[in-house]
Amino acid sequence: MSTVLTNITKNYDSEKAVLSDVNAEIQTGEFFVIVGPSGCGKSTLLRMIAGLTPISDGEIRINDKVVNGLPPKDRNLTMVFQSYALFPFLNVWDNVAFGLKARKSTSQAEIETRVNDALKMVNLETLKDRKPRELSGGQRQRVALARAVASDAKICLMDEPLSNLDAQLRIKMRQEIYALQRKLGLTLIYVTHDQVEAMTMADHIMVLHDSKVQQIGTPAEIYKYPANEFVASFFGVPPINILPAVKVSNGKVNVNNDFEVNIDQQVPTDNFKIGIRPNELVIEQTDELHANASVKSIEFLGDEKIVYAKMSNNDLEVAAVVASDADFKAYDTIKVSASDNVLLFNGDGVNITRNAEDVVNA
């Protein structure tokens, strides 16, 4: 039993497709995250699964049943919106019960049991008589979650549900949503533009960009074996350093004409790039004669620092993560090098690092 998307395409009146040939299989009970930058079609895809937006081409199957023409109420799923979509004139209890009452097929006793159980699950029993305006952002989000839980649907869709919350509350709500999904065994399809949310919550991640699926994989696969430059740059804080490189000899490549890295595989003779994560970039202070970069700025993060530097050639900027007690300051002359743990991308931006292709295409 699963949710299967086959060649899903969405066109409006413009020539360019909003989504093109989206394929995925979402297993029952998994936490599946759709991530990508604003405007990439994430919410559109979610709304098509929900039945709120018609598809232009392709097929959606839920539990082995084609649902292309089914209205939302017949798809046995529930949705949590970014805006919470609460009724301001109803109290918490009635907001959670609204969908159950609208069905008219659920007894009053069952409604009360489901609503009370859902409110208990999200710790809102004591606030059941309050109106939405009397609640904090996190509490409103819990009401929306309780409504989804009370519906007893086995598939829950969430469209950027935490984007309106402050950073600390987002962390707390991430943990609560993840725990709730595991406890109930829900199939949860979750849309976000936040790569941290995706990495910390997902069983599998779909990366969308430029109307197409760039990669589907586990968080570890996405991070370690990104399909291309876009995926590599989207995941990781600070972002990966992408630098031009040329082959020097077997086993060595020259990076940006500034330093060399050992590579244990065949690489193109020209027109390729190297990706170096900031924690794999090595910097040390040196005199001007031996320097290949200078420090531009520094961010102190408590247990570590991020050093932003400008390379001598091409004025390219790079970021390196160093210990919090490392003594660097703006305008220091430094020598930049890297470990051998790097990624390689061809002229089209495709990851050509050894073993990456097997993982990406698995």
UniProtKB/TrEMBL annotation:
Q: Which SUPFAM superfamilies match?
A: MOP-like, P-loop containing nucleoside triphosphate hydrolases
GO process annotations (BP):
carbohydrate transport
Report one GO cellular component. ATP-binding cassette (ABC) transporter complex, substrate-binding subunit-containing
Q: Which GO terms describe its molecular function?
A: ABC-type transporter activity; ATP binding; ATP hydrolysis activity
Provide the ABC transporter domain boundaries: 3-235
The protein's UniProt keywords, in alphabetical order, are: ATP-binding, Cell membrane, Membrane, Nucleotide-binding, Translocase, Transport
Q: Which PANTHER family match?
A: MALTODEXTRIN IMPORT ATP-BINDING PROTEIN MSMX, TREHALOSE IMPORT ATP-BINDING PROTEIN SUGC
User: Which protein are we looking at?
Assistant: Glycerol-3-phosphate ABC transporter ATP-binding protein
Q: Which organism is it from?
A: Companilactobacillus heilongjiangensis
Q: What is the lineage of its organism?
A: Bacteria, Bacillati, Bacillota, Bacilli, Lactobacillales
